[in-house]
Each structure stands twice: as structure tokens, then as C-alpha cells.
Amino acid sequence: MKMNTKASTLFSTLVLLGFFHLSLVSCRKIKGNHGGNGFTLDLIHRDSPLSPFYNPSNRLRNAFHRSFSRASFFKKNSFASATDTIQSDIFPIPGEYLMKISIGTPPVEIVAIADTGSDLTWTQCMPCANCFQQSAPLFDSKQSSTYKTVGCNAEECTSLGTSSCVRGNICEYQMSYGDQSQTIGDLAFEKFTFPSTSGNNVSIPNVVFGCGHDNNGTFNNYTSGIIGLGGGEVSIINQLDKQINGKFSYCLIPIPLQSSNSNATSHINFGDSAIVSGPNVVSTPLIKKEPSTFYYLNLEDISVGDKIVDFKSPNITSSGPGDDGQGNIIIDSGTTLTLLPSEFYSSLESTLVDSINATRRDDPSGTFGLCYESENGTIDAPKIVAHFTDADLELSPSSTFAEVEEGLICLTIVPAEEVAIFGNLAQANFLIGYDLVANKISFQPTDCTKY
């Protein structure tokens, strides 16, 4: 994949912000229901009691505010034309989920932010002239027999768009951000090993990753870098294409249930294990756009009971001449809330107000526009259905209206200028399968606590 200079600037600006963050703490290699092999891994949300980030106070509000941080970024950047030059302040956002894998031979364990909004996977490496603090030792490539740097003329190097040639013929990547956060290092091949509770580890040779020697910014010491799960060429998903055939899926447990059931974990599946089939499955096309990192869907409208609110899409990044305006919303499991353009949100809110018989109450924090009093943590909400192309998703009332504090229930859909994101609360309790070969996403209603 080669992009022009301006598109490359946009891509490199976006690459580390991330959309969907997954935490991989264990893996079991299993034989899929459809023949062949796949593997399944546990995911730990950063606000789960099992997470090192866990803070039991104001968990929902903390997650909601991270959604607005993302929205402010998208407002300035990701929905401008791909031909525009982008200059803005960008601040890396802590990952929603953590991922634990091993790299090298012998294998060395790392914990990184798993991120569908990034393609390049990177970790801090020795020697490190300027690094952020991390709890685990830095990866030492000299101790690995399977480490090999990428040459400057290799496709893996030229496709990055933000690389240079150093020390003879070593591809050096550079990712920098408006707050002076950055990662710079050698692009290399290495063996990646996914841990398995069964003892049958899943090892993949010659995975392209960044060995970072100059990294700083607002990263925390529980992580050592990023695991890129986006749609671009150097993402883990595309690098494992021969093993997983472009397929992965996940089942996310609603945030409130993660506190009441500390043993419940979400899961991500790869390969044959990721095929979503059976009763009640609906599928919608994945729309190809630039940057190719992100996963775009087409939302047609939203219904509230028997009333239809037509979706007016924002000016999302164009895929070039002939773009038909499809792909008007990004599906993102790293953003908690669902964000919709302000004009459309106003129509949706008015329709909801007319359909709900409950006492309205202002949100003291000013975060949410539509809130109600509730003694038992619920309200009698109408059926809300998101109508994607060829796929109608009935959204769970418990996810659409959440108790943000005692006695206060608020709508978890919020307005955002020129941005549209289908967040993880709306995705909860669906088994969601990505098929990058067939270019579709499938949804199956599922109790993810039992999946």
C-alpha cells in the first residue's frame, strides 16, 4: 500500500490514537466448528477489576470522558478530506484493553495496548535512549535468534509512509504527535507467540513490528507499546492472513456487568473460531476508505419504536474520486459511547423524549444531554434499532440508557461535530465477526458472560 504524501501525513497522525483496544491475557487453541483451526483469547477491559488500571470509583464516567477525548480528536482530524494537510494537537489515549503476548526466541512477554485504530505494532527495546517507564524489562533484540531488521527498500518499509534509512540499510519508523509524544525505532521481523491455557502456544514467525529506541509521551508503566489490529497492511490482522484468513470476532461484556461479575471476561477469536453463523445473524458491508486502518460501516437510520429518524452523515474522509458517500460511521470497540452528528442527535433525542414517560433530570456534570430519574437503575425505554445496510440491530436498553450515578439514568448516545462512531456499549452482548476477505461484519445477539 502506497499513499501520497498528504494522505501519509494523515495516516501517521492517526495511527496511535486507536479505536478499539483489546486485552489479551490467555489463549486457548481450539478446533473451529467449521473445520480447521482457530484460537480464542480472553479480553480484559481497562475498567474491569482484573485490569491493572482498575479504579472502582466513577468507572462509567471515566470511560465516558475518554469517549469525548476521542471525539475532540476526530473533530479536528479524521473526518477531513484525505487530501488535506493535517496539523493538530494529538494526545495518546490510554487503551481500553490490554494484550499480553511474547516475542522473540526465547520468548519474552510484553503487555501492550491492543488497538484496532493502529496498524503498526511496536514495543520499547534496548538500547533505549529516551523511553517512558514500564514495569517489565525492555525487549533486548540481541538476545533473540529470530530477530531481523527490515531493509529500506522492502515493501514493509515503504508502505509505512513515515520511515527513513539508517545505519546502512535499516528501515527506521517515526511516529510523532502534537503533544511531543513519539516512538522512533527499527522496523524488524520477529516471532510472535500467543499464550495458551492449554499449553499449545500459537507461534507466528516473521511478524513485522517496531523495535522502539526513542519513545516518550503520556504512556503508562503497565504497557510497553501498541498491538496494531487495524485494517492496514502492516497490522497484525493482515500479517496473520494466511493463518486466520482475514477473520476475527469479539464478544464484549457490558461494563456494568464487569464490576458485578469480576470473573467474567470478554473474548476475541481468530480464524475459523471467528466465523459468526447460525440463527439471528445479520451482516453489513465493510466500506473501504482511507485511512485503511479504520473499519467503516453505513448507517441508514435509527428507529425509536415505530418512528424513523433518517441519518444525516458527517463529512467523513473521502476514498477519492467517485466516492459515493458510503461508510458514514466507524465501528470502534475502544470508544465507550456512540457519537452521532449534532443535528441528527437532536432529532433522535426529541423522538426519544416524546416516547419516554419518566421524570427528566439534568446531569450535574453536564456530560449527557438526556437523563432521567430512576429508583431501580432502569427506565421504561422504547425499542431502539440501528439500521445499517442489510442489518438491523436492536440495541439493548441497559446499554442505551446507563446508570451514570445513583438514581440517574442517561442516554449513552451523544452529539459530536462531524463525527460518527458506533461505540462499545452499543456493541455489548453481540458476537461481532469481521471478515476482511468478504468485506463484511456480522452481528449475532449473544450473552457474552456465557460465551
Automatic annotation (TrEMBL):
GO biological process: proteolysis
Cross-referenced Pfam families: TAXi_C, TAXi_N
Keywords: Aspartyl protease, Glycoprotein, Hydrolase, Protease, Secreted, Signal
InterPro entries: Aspartic_peptidase_AS (IPR001969), Pepsin-like_plant (IPR034161), PEPTIDASE_A1 (IPR033121), Peptidase_aspartic_dom_sf (IPR021109), Plant_Aspart_Prot_A1 (IPR051708), TAXi_C (IPR032799), TAXi_N (IPR032861)
Signal sequence, start to end: 1-27
Compartment annotation: Secreted
Record-annotated Peptidase A1 domain positions: 97-444
PANTHER family (alphabetical): ASPARTIC PROTEINASE CDR1-LIKE (PTHR47967:SF128), OS07G0603500 PROTEIN-RELATED (PTHR47967)
Name listed for the protein in its UniProt record: Aspartic proteinase CDR1-like
Organism: Nicotiana sylvestris
Lineage of the organism: Eukaryota, Viridiplantae, Streptophyta, Embryophyta, Tracheophyta
